[in-house]
Amino acid sequence: MILKPTRRAVLAAGAAAALVRPAAARAGPTEITARGGRAQLLPAGHPETPVWGYDGTVPGPEIRVAQGARVERRLRNALDVPTATHWHGIRLPNAMDGVPGLTQDAVAPGETFDYAFAVPDAGTYWYHAHRDSTEQVGRGLRGPLVIEEREGAPEVDAEHVLMLEDWRLGPDGMHQGAFGMPHDDSHGGRIGNVVTTNGAVEPALPPAAPGARLRLRIVNAANARVFTLGLEGLEGWTVALDGMPLEAPEPIRGPLVLGPAQRADLVVDVTAEAGAEAFLVHLERDGGYVQASIPVAGAVQARRPVPAPLPPNPAPRPAMTDARPLGLVLAGGAMGGMRGASVGSERMDARTLAGRGLFWSLGGHAGPPDAPLAELARGETVRMVLRNETAWPHAMHLHGHHFAELGPDGRPGALRDTTLVAPRATAEIAFAADNPGDWLVHCHMLGHAASGMTTWLRVA
Length: 460
Ligand code: C2O
Ligand code: CU
Hints:
There is one protein chain. By secondary structure, this protein is mainly β. Helices cover 6% and strands 42% of the residues. It has five helices and 31 strands. The strands form seven sheets. A six-stranded mixed β-sheet has the order 10-9-11-16-13-14, with no helix packed on it. A six-stranded mixed β-sheet has the order 22-19-24-29-26-27, with no helix packed on it. A five-stranded mixed β-sheet has the order 23-31-30-25-28. Strand 17 (277-284) and strand 18 (287-295) form a beta hairpin. The radius of gyration is 21 Å and the shape is globular. Residues 1-25 have low confidence and may be disordered. The protein binds CU-O-CU linkage (C2O) and copper (II) ion.
């Protein structure tokens, strides 16, 4: 497919420079404050947008530590509403998972909560609010969390963390419409009209030489948008998904699909010529749009060989013998024909549910059931069938563990923490339940999670 990237908007040189994060960013601050701020999300010259951000910025400060090190952050809540922070994809102790009502009390305005945990796996992760997430993440409470390999990182000339975001903004820069509107929740979620990378429309990254090698850490931090990504003037390999290294780098031959919350680590070489630009684009029905651009300048560098695989993480791969079967039916939504579901111990018909803002169910429950979906023995392997009976894709996320996506032959593939299940399709995952505690399973289209698609598992 030949892409025709649109010209990027001309950003003032100063604004472009401010967007760029140095490859070796310092570790984030010890205290991190959830508070209001303003961000230039619309192109320069248009009004700013009021946001909620960690330290008031969008995205929040990058947290970067070495594999095996500890992340220690005091969350200070300077918002007017309670909040909590979830460390997406990190295999951490349950009490640090940041889920109000399940693993901690919400942090009241003016209060603090201390998060402290070791990070066992290298890779690209992120952190985000986990209370009223449609609104809190939607207003900007999210940031990148990068765990560096202690050794065996690919040799690159530069690295860029690219957080992809989606906003619904008016020409005045204000968020349009309420968060959690029934029409959004029952359809594809809150899909926006302004797509940014690291808080800016079509940002320019620092220049790279022809032949230069880059590592791109891409995070889909959008509320609900599935990004279909393409490369122009760049060629390379996917080396990790959701933080976890692939057994072998996979050549990028077509569009790369990232559901909400999913990540991809790419190693790419600049194939565009000096004087041209290279692009990360996102593909829509009508063509490709610039997600980030790289001016190409300087002396041609010799191409390097295929990168070695990233060193494997200690995250367990599921042993497929003696796996316990579990089924999970995804139901509801517009054109889903859901008849009813349980709320707590009460059975309700679809109309009653809709009256309460519930449009979806997981395993017959709209919203988290009183008892866990399953109680698992520590160390047990679970094989879970996700049957999507709805007309919509869902990005299903399991907390506290990574799972293998099973291929059509039943063989475990890549380890992930979020799997995108296509409409009316069935997907299978398997994981070793080795992390004790109560763990959410939910759709990461945040409006779906809020309107029924949330359940939980207990690992004893
Ligand atoms: Cu990234 Cu429960 O979420
Ligand atoms: Cu969903």
